[in-house]
Amino acid sequence: MGVSAFAPASIGNVSVGFDILGAALKPIDGQILGDNVDVYPGDSEFDLSIEGWFASKLPADPKKNICYDAYVGFKDLLAEKGIAVKPVKMVLKKNLPIGSGLGSSAASIVAAVEALNAFHDYPLSKDEALMLMGRLEGKISGSVHFDNVAPCYLGGIQLMVEEAGIITETVPSFADWYWVSCYPGITVSTAAARAILPKEYSRSTCITFGRQIASFIQASHTGNEKLAAAVLKDVLAEPYRRELIPGYDDAMAKGMELGALAGGISGSGPSIFVVMKDLAKAEELQEYLKKNFIQNDDGFCNICRIDTDGTVVTSI
C-alpha cells in the first residue's frame, strides 16, 4: 500500500507581491498542471525513479534530485523526534518544466515531502512540513523561499508573513477570475532573472510597492475587485525582466485589447499570466498565445482558476 501526492503549479510574486505572494493554479479543463510523487514500501532504504513529460530534463543520478534532498531532510526531522523512516521507493512524475516560472521545483519538493509525511502517518505538522519545504526550495534559489511552496502546499493565494510564528496567511481570491497561464517553452534561469534587477530602488518605487501590495490585500479581503485588479502591477521586477521574455509586450497588449484585468510575469519567467473575466475572451487569448507566444513543442497554455485545494494525497 502506497500514497500519491499531487502538487499544483503556482505563480510566484503574482506581480504585486515580489517574493511575498504566491498563487496555486488549476486548469479548468481538467488537464494535469503539477507534479506527482508516489511513495511505496521499498526493498532498500531509498529508491527513486522519474517519469513524466519533463523527466529527461533532470539528472539521471537520483541523489542529485530534489526528491532525495526531501527524503534526507524528512529523515533528519524524524530522527529529532526519535522516529525511524521506513524503506521507501519513490516515483516522481515530472509534469512541470524546469525554469518555467510555474513553481516546478516547489511542486516536486512539496509533493515529495507530503507523500513521505502521509506514508509515515503525518509525524510532521503542517508548519514543520512547510518549513522543510521552504528550506529545500532555498537550496535551489539561494535563500529560504515560500512564495511557491506555500500556495502549492496549502492552495489559494498565500501571503508570506514570516513573523510572530506565522509563516503564511491565505488571501481571499476572486472565484470568477480566469488566469490564462502560458509557458513559451524556453528557459529563463532564476539567477539570470535576479541578476538583471537593480541592486537599489528609489524611495518612490518602494512606496509604490508597499501601497500596491497593501491595497491588493485589502481589496481581496473586502471583495473590491476593481481595486484589486488596478493594483495588480509589478514595479520591482517586470520593468527589467520583460526584456528576457520574447513576445512579452505583444502578449500583454493582446490581453489588454481583449479586456484583461491585469497580467504579468509568472515568478521569474518566462511563463506569463493574464487575468480575464470573460471565458470566451480568455479562450481567444489562449489561441493567440499558442500561435504567437509559444516558441516550441515544450510550450503550453492553460486557462486556470485559483486552485484552493493545494496538495492532494490519495492512497494507491
Quick overview of this protein structure:
The chain is an alpha+beta fold.
Write up this protein.
There is one protein chain. This protein has ten helices and 13 strands. Helix 1 packs across helix 3 (126-141). It has two domains: 3-170 and 308-315, Ribosomal Protein S5, domain 2; 178-306, GHMP kinase, C-terminal domain (Alpha-Beta Plaits). It is α+β, with helices and mostly antiparallel strands. The longest helix has 20 residues, at 203-222. Strands 2, 3, 7, 8, 9, 10, 11 and 12 form an eight-stranded antiparallel sheet that branches. A five-stranded mixed sheet has the order 5-6-4-1-13. The termini are close together. It has helices at 66-80, 104-119, 126-141, 149-154, 190-195, 203-222, 225-230, 238-241, 248-257, 279-292, and strands spanning 3-8, 10-12, 21-27, 34-41, 46-51, 88-93, 157-163, 166-171, 178-183, 262-265, 272-276, 300-306, 312-315.
